[in-house]
Amino acid sequence: MLETPQGALYTGITTDVARRMAQHESGRGAKALRGRGPLALVHQEPVGSHGDALRLEAEVKRLPAARKRSWFQGRQGLEETSCIPS
């Protein structure tokens, strides 16, 4: 999960976080992040399978920003999970 300087949160999946961050920062990533300034990686975690990652991403994207923040703050330090937020 990335955060813009304006406080917007962006959720996505990747197998290589460093590569994807470089793409976003160079303007070759998601259109929603282009021109939004320096990005901060606020949360990342490994998830079992690609399908699990897609399901988790979809659930997180449906949450309002405040719930997203409390969700990822509560998950800091988790090693591996495939839980979907409730």
From TrEMBL:
It holds the Pfam family GIY-YIG. It comes from Billgrantia bachuensis. Coiled coil: none annotated. InterPro entries: GIY-YIG_endonuc, GIY-YIG_endonuc_sf, UPF0213_domain. Residues 1-74 form the GIY-YIG domain. This is GIY-YIG nuclease family protein. Belongs to the UPF0213 family.
